[in-house]
Structures are given as C-alpha cells and as structure tokens.
Amino acid sequence: MDHNKRRTSSIDSYFSVQKKSKFQDIESNDTNISQTSFTFASPSISLISTSDQDIEVVNADGVGNSVENKNICDDISNSYHDSPCQPILINYPTNEDNRSFQDQWYQDRPWLEYSIKKDCAYYYYCHHFGFSSSALTKRKQHDAFVSSGFRNWKRALEKERGFDRHITSQVHIVASNNYLSYQQRIKTKQTVIDILDSGRAQHIRRNRDRLIKIASLLLLCSRQMIAIRGHNENEDSLNRGNLLEILRWSSQTDPISREILEDTNKNATYLSHQIQNELISIMANQIRTQISEQVINFLQYLSRSNQLLFLHFQVKGKFFSLMADESRDISGHEQLSIVIRIVIDLPDTKADLVKEYFMGFIRLHEFDAKSLSLKIVEFLKQYNIKLDSCIAQCYDGVMSGKCAGLQTIMREEYMPKGVYIHCCTHRLNLVIVDVCKVVNYIGEFYSIMSSVYSFFTSSGVANEYFLDAQQKLRLETTKLKLWSDIRWDSRWDSIDALIKNYSAVIQAFDDIIEEQDTRSVNARGLLIAVKEPIFVVTLFVLYKLMGPIKILSNQLKSETIDYGKAHYLISTIIEEIQNCRNERSFKFIYNQILEFSQKYDIDLKQKRGGRVRKIPDRFSNSIITSTIGHRDDDNNHEHRFRTSTFYPLIDSILIELNNRFSNTNLDILKSLAAMYPESEQFLEFKSLYSLADHLNCDLNQLQSELNVIKPMIKDEKLKSIIELYKKLRPYKEAFPTVISMITGALTIPVSSTSCERSFKILRWSSQTDPISREILEDTNKNATYLSHHIQNELISIMANQIRTQISEQVKGNFFSLMADESRDISGHEQLSIVIRVVIDSPDTKADLVKEYFMGLIRLHEFDAKSLSLKI
What we know:
A hairpin with a 5-residue loop joins strand 8 (815-823) and strand 9. The termini are far apart. The longest helix is centred in the first third of the chain and has 32 residues, at 192-223. The protein is an alpha+beta fold and 871 residues long.
C-alpha cells in the first residue's frame, strides 16, 4: 500500500463519537433572509468606544484573536480592537415566521452584535475571545452565535433556548472571563506575562513568610530549650508537640499561622521534621558564619587609618583561643563541645570586650588524640577559621592527655602558636578531691554529707519530716545541697546548707527514730555521725577554708576573666590560706565550734571509739614508772583538733594549690601576669618579652611604646587588663604593639567552663524561670512584673474550669478511679488522680473511652485513712 495515500487520522479518531451535550449544541438558524428594504435611523452608528492602544495580548488557543470564519459578514467587528456592532434601524427584516430582530435586545447585552447584510446576530465575546476549537470538549465546536449567525427570532428570548441558552454555556463563560481580563490588562497596562510574574512573586513572598514564621518558632523552642516535635502529631492528637501547638495558638490572631495550618496544599506546609531540621541547621550555620567572619575580619577597620603601622600585625586574622571538652548526651553518645574565645573591639564601651562563642557539638566515634584533632580541624576549617591564628588551646587534663596528647598534636601539626592552658577550674576542683584522699577523716566526712543528703531527698516520707521540722523551728525553707566531685562549687554550698539546717536535721532524725520503722536504723546511725565532735570540727574548718576557694571558683568560671587576673586571684587566695595557719585563726573557729556544740549538746571531750589499748602480759605484775610506747590521752581538745584536723587540712590545700598552679613558670604565662595592673612586674619589658615573641610583635616598637605609656598611666588606678585596654583604646594608632599584646592576653582563656555550660543543652532542664526575659528587661517594672503567686492563681482558675467541664461529662455515667503516687523534683509526695469514663459522643471519629487527669494531691500523711480522705 502506498503510504502517501494512507489517510491521516487525528488522535480523536481513535475514540468513539461522544453524544451531544445539552449546552454544546447551540441552535442555528436555517431560514433564508427575505429581501426587505430598510433605512438607518442615523447615519452614525452608536458604538461602545474602547481605547485604541497597542496592547500585546498573549493567550492560549486563540483567546483574544478573532475566530476565522468565512461565513461571518464584514459589517460587524473584525477584531478585538473594534467595538461591538449594534446598528439601530427603523425596521428590521422579518423571516418566514414573520419575526424580526429587536433593538431593545441590546439593553443588558453589550456583547450582542447584529449583521445588516445577513440579518443575523453574533456574540462579540465568543467571536473575539472564545476558542476556534473547543479546548474544553476536545472536538469541533459548532455555535451559530460565533460561526453562521443566529436568526431564529422566535426562540431568541425563550428560556433554555436562544440567548439564555448560550450565555449559560461554558464557552460563553470562558469568553466573558477572557474579555474582562483583557479590559483589566488595558486599564493596568499589563501584559499576561506581567500578571504571571506578579502571581509568581506573590507566591514566593507567601512561601517566604511561612518559612520565616516557622523558623521563628523553631528559634523560640531552641532558645527556651523545649522539645520541638511531639510523640503524636496527627490532627486528632490532643498534644501535637510544642511547635504545632504554638502555631495553632498563634493562628487565632496571626493570619500567616492560620494559612500554614489551613492550606489545602498539603505538599507545601513546611512542617515535616526534615524541613525543621534543615531550618535549624541553616540558622546554626548562619550564626557560625557570623562568628567566623568576626575572627577573620577583626582589626581591618584599624588598618584603614594607617596601613603601614599594622603590617607586622595579624590584621587579616584575629587572635582566638580554642576550648574543647567532651561529655555524653542523653542517648549515650559522646559529644565534643567546641568554643572559641576572641576579643571584640566595639565602639560601645558598655559591651563585653571578651566573647566566648559556642560553635557546636561534634559526634565522636573514636577517642584517641589523633582522631579528636582531625575532628576539631575539620570542624573549624568548614567555617574558614585560620588555625594558625590560634594562640592558645584550653582543655582539662583528660582531654589534653588522650593517648598521645591532643594538645601536642594540635600544636605541632596545626596550631604552632597554640600554647596549652590546663583548665584552671578543673585544677581547682582536683585540689579538693586530692585533699579528701590525703587527710584521713575527710573521706568519711564526705560520705556522711552525701548520706544525709540522700536520706532526705530519696524518700518523700523523710523529706516531709525534714520540712515539718523546718516549720516547727521557724527556719527559712532551704534545701540540703549535694556534695559532688564533679560540681566544683558544691562542697561549700553543701556545708553551708547543713549548718543552717542542722537543727532541722537533728529534729527530723529524732522524729524518725521514734517511729521505729525501717528508716529508724539509718536515722540513728546518721544522727550519731553528725553529732560526733570530729564531724562538727571538720564542718566548721572546711567552711572557713573553702569560702575563699568558692570565691576563686566563681571568678575562674567568668567568661571575661583574663589570665593575669586569674594569676593574681590564685596568688591572693594562697596567701590568705597561708595566713590562716596560726593559733589565733583556729581560736576564732574553735569559739564558734564551742558555741555550736553547747547549743546542740555535743560533748567535745567525747573521743571516737577505737581499739582498746592493752598492757603487755609481761608487765601485768609490775609497777610501771616510765613510758612503754603507749600514748597518753590528750585532754587538751583544742590542741588536738588544731593539730589533727586544722593544720593538716591547711597544709594539704596549700600543697595541692602550689602543685596544681605551679605551671605558671611558663614564660608566656608569666608575661600574661605582667599585663595585670596589680602585678609587681606590670608592663616590665623583660617580663613581657615572651608574650611579645609569641605574638610576633616588634620588640623595639614595644620598648618605645612602654616608655611612653608608663608615665601616662602612672596616676591611674587601673584594676584589670580590660580597664588598661579601654584607657589606651583612644590612642590605638599610637600604641599598636601594646594594643595587640593586650588583645592577645585577653584572648588566652583561663578555663573551659563555657564548654561545660554548653552541655546543659544536652540535658533536659528540670526547672525554668516562669518570668520571661522580656518582662524582666522592661523598664516599667511596676506595671509588667508578674509574681509567682498571680501566675499560679491564674493557672489554678483555668484548671478548675477544666475539672468542672470533666465532672459534667462524668455526671450520671459509670466511671473508674485510678491513683498513683510519686515524688516531685522538690521531694514532695504527689498523688495523681485519673478517672476513666465512657463518653457517648455523636462524633463517630471521637474516642469512646476517655481517661481524664484530674490533678495532683500533695501528701503529708501516708496511711490509708489519710489517703482516702484526700481522694
């Protein structure tokens, strides 16, 4: 068969012929036009004028272009630029039904056109703004109003025929909408492309508004350290998680939040956990990028005034120090915390000069020094932080000595200027730990302190006895504190809390012993232990000696402390403890011990039970007139406690302090101390030599600047390196070398406490401050301050309303009672009340069985009768 002769078929030929739709078969007129004479009412035809502007119209399927049809007469509008042709005649020709066109039909029909030559009616909208072929039915469209013309005047006004039938068709509706859009584009002078671009811009803006709203909520949850997602985020869940619940709450007043929740386009809600994690990651990276830019671009604005003065300084990279520490998160994974310390030279003198920025956590899988160094280097390089600008690295003893030594690898391979600083707070903590190992009784003292704390906090019953004793004795309601090896300042707090609550502790022990139950045995043993003279003496001695150490610990944890100030404080504390080693200092403490012992009936003459000393058998029948190697009892109790407890504790603390902080013999650290105004070597050139060499400073320039600075600040009472910096900052162009050295001295850290603070992010905070930061920082304190009492009262009112609604549902129905007790974070026993009821709801999707939590009952008595009355 000849392929050229093969009949070509369209895709429509492969489908069966569709039946005619009721509205698609528009009635056409087959009558002939009668030859009738006619005249015009006026030589000028009334037309609807339009603007003759050259507007480019872009439409699909011929919209906005006249439908090409040879049967259309040329006495009507030829294009969409022409107005509808509506001639008014004195007499219109009649057809075989003796009916004719009427000019009153033009009223309310601006789209109606009349051809005088063919005596037919046409639709202007469908003619110029319709479709040459129907894109709606996918087949040829036959319509008399568009193609051949309509002249069946008899049925022109009939319902569902003629005019009315056509204007209800989909073709006419689409054409009308196209015409109105065309008119709108003429008025606004916009093309279709402009409209599409405007819609796209609005769509982008709407999506960005949604993302900003979601990102702000994520930031809120992150700053408040609350969970973002819930266990069940389905729409029928009562609690869909913090993010969705806050979003739902804000949707009551915020249209953007309401749009996010109510948008039917469910594939673009941006609420999935993948999107949330990505947004959090983006915000975190933006923060890290800002920090890294500060590190990279610092001091550039200083070089604008005189570039030559700063060529020998690191003007393109800021000094920074690296701090790192590791800890285990709640899932058991080891996390490495990275913190960098820099000095920010801001025009605002009130702003903190020294900044410590937490950069993030690194998940650890290998724990040798080499692997840790690679992880740290990779982490810093991704934020373009120059490793050779690091002038110090600070870890604790465990981190620095991982196998081959982390600090050694970092200094030899990546940070040649990164001098190692052992965390001072860790070293100070080890002082107390080692003292407990050296002095015999201190270990037992620590065990007693921990046992007393555990006795009253691990049992709700024992804690109630303790709280009742505080109320009876009218003591301030304070808690006992835990003595812990890992909490640096917990020792002094623990001793202070026990001294203040000693009477309540004794009273609680006595009350529990009288009950003669299983707790009485432990209470009796602890009561004997805390009333021993050696315990009381050790309690007051440690209270005196650990007071200065606590002050030092608090100062070392400050972000803005510099090494010069730390060295000065450590030297001062050591000197103060040395000055306490005399009989006069112990006499003052012993007088407090005597007063305390008399108040609580403690006999200081009582000796601890020990091994009974036995006279050898060979001397049993002899009269002994000289010593036989056995010590006589010491009746001078003050002397005994001074020599056996006070002096050994002081000596042990001094030895440990000197040993732990003796590495200040490093030349660089000595130079740092010489930058401190209280130092005897303040701004001495020889003492500053090591630091200047470490920072690559010009020694000749340094000598010249020091000669000018010393007389200038001779009468100034400076107390810190920061005050020295602020004093010289207005003359930064005159003293660039000294400014650089001060910056380096402030950059070198004292401790890695900021890493410890970052680990709080990994742990769930058990207590939060109910007063928001915004309220606390408001200037109008009297108007905005909300007391705890008012907040609790409002919460109580809402809770009672909820309980009332639940009781109305339960009323008249069977219900079951469930109860259980547990201890809250403050040690109080709480009884939880839950009721179970069947709700006959018309909503078939609602749960039939409901369990309602009614509230918590604070328990003071624990017998069955008291519990039943409470319920």
